[in-house]
Amino acid sequence: MTGNNHTAAANEPRPQRTQDEAIAFECARECITHLIGIITDELHNRTPNEARIAALEAERSSLFREQQNLYKATLADVARINTKYGAFVRAHMAWEDRDTRPRVDLAALAVLRTTAST
């Protein structure tokens, strides 16, 4: 792969996208990036226990892999990611006070990730 983790390998063909498709793809990348950030914030600012740390790190790793493989996603996959992950991010960000936001619901996120990849 190139130096950017979000690009296809040099020998893999890049899909041609319309402007709207490219925007949707970038939005999907940003949704995943935001979820990674939410998890990272909890890891660094909420002092979770060891089991929670392991679960958060596993979820973050899954999201990284999903983001790295996003260039292979179909338009339907991108739409599902934007709809499902976008709703999760918006709900999380609706809390104005960062210190009172609920912890990441890993079970709900796992369900979203599973349905986003089907």
Gap between N and C termini, in Å?
25 Å
Major β-sheet profile: none
Estimate what percentage of residues fall within beta strands.
Answer: under 5%
Order of helices and strands: HHHH
**Structural class designation:** mainly alpha
Features:
118 residues, mainly alpha, 64% helix
Q: How would you describe what is shown here?
A:
With 118 residues, the chain is mostly helical. It has one domain (19-116). The protein is 64% helix and 0% strand. It has helices spanning 19-45, 50-68, 75-93, 106-116. The radius of gyration is 15 Å and the shape is globular.
Topology, please?
Layout: H1 19-45, H2 50-68, H3 75-93, H4 106-116
Summarize the structure.
The chain has 118 residues and is mostly helical.
